Amino acid sequence: MIFLLALVLIVLAGGGCVMSDEQAVEVSLSDAEPVATVTSPTPQSPGPSIDIAVAAMISPKETLITYRDLLDYISRKTGTPTNLVQRETYAEINNLIRQGDVEMAFVCTGAYVEGKRSFDMELLVAPQMYGETYYYSYIIVPANSSAEDLDDLRGKSFAFTDPLSNSGRLAPTYMLAQMGESPESLFSGYSYTYSHDKSIEAVSEKVVDGAAVDSLIWNYFDWKYPDITAGTKVIVKSPPYGIPPVVVPAGLDASLKDQLRDVLLHMHEDEEGRRILAEIKITRFVEVDDSIYDSVREMTEAVGRQ
Questions:
Q1: Are the CB atoms for 285 and 265 separated by under 8 Å?
Q2: Does any domain span residue 304?
Q3: Do residue 224 and residue 260 come from a single domain?
């Protein structure tokens, strides 16, 4: 996976290419890892299942490791089997929610704002992490890089996460716009990795000169895989943005919606729930007001929809 990205960027660097969004390299996860649906059967309930989608903020394998216990917990509490549904892009996850093909989803902030605008995606709860319901966009570079700000990445290669990502695409694009720049004018070329951990890894291995990543995922990797983040350093930290939420489709059965919300909101109150939350660095799930995402809407209006 990383070798493929390296090869693509070497070609770009050699040609001095500056790309539009339509020309930007898209690195497929399917070359290395399956993007699938994984079922967690619950013996006490052979009936219908709850399909729960997780946007590819981290790679499929890491997503399975991170969310498996959480979905099993939801299955036990509801008495219904859960299916972990993964897709390659944020847009594909949004489409599943739009069509009502999943009952619940963990999505990126940018994807939520777009889903709320275009088809009334419904906010259910949000995680509280590190004592906050906010997160940040980090601009990272290799640990030994001399770069100290975005302007120092002029003429360099850069990795975005996903076109619908706030921290991995919108926020850094907005930062550039405030400088009177764009990805095309500042960088020699840029790519989409479609997961924040792949972006972190690409910077750590010096495949790219910089990347924009989700602070929550960088912090999680700094705790779990410090050997990877040790190869990076944060040179820019954005203002706070509303944290990536848990959502449901508009029109989801009200009783199921209430049941899912109740399970998550009370998860921190029992020992098993606290253990699972601690493993993914979530203090608890809380209800939040949609207004915490207004700053992302303002950036979207300022730079245009991706």
A1: yes
A2: no
A3: no
Q: Which two tokens stand for residue 302?
A: 């300022």
Which among 22, 18, 4, 306 has a CA at the least distance from the CA of 173?
A: 306
14 and 147 in one domain?
Answer: yes
Q: What is the pLDDT of residues 76-132, one digit of tens each?
A: 999 999 999 999 899 999 999 999 999 999 999 999 999 999 999 999 999 999 889
pTM over 0.85: no
Stated length of the chain? 306
Distance between CA 54 and CA 138 in Å, rounded?
22
Which 3 state secondary structure label does DSSP give 127? strand
For residue 130, give both structure tokens: 């590190």
Residues 122 and 204 in one domain: no
Tell me how many domains the chain contains: 2
CA distances from 20 to 183, 266, 302, 303 (A): 8, 46, 18, 14
Whether the predicted pLDDT of 16 surpasses 60: no
CATH number of the domain at 56, please. Answer: 3.40.190.10
65/216 Cα distance (integer angstroms): 16
DSSP for 169-227, written as a single string: IIHHHHHHHHTT--HHHH-SEEEE-SSHHHHHHHHHTTSSSEEEEEHHHHHHHHHH-HH
Q: Does 163 share its domain with 295?
A: no
Residue the block writes with tokens 């095309």: 184
Three-state secondary-structure class, residue 154: coil
Q: Verify that 26 and 143 share a domain, yes or no.
A: yes
Residue ending a domain, among 200, 222, 238, is: 238
> Which residue range forms the structural domain that includes residue 292?
34-133+243-299
CA 37 to chain centre: 18
Report residue 124: phi and psi, to 5°: -105, -65
Whether residue 120 is found in the same domain as residue 261: yes
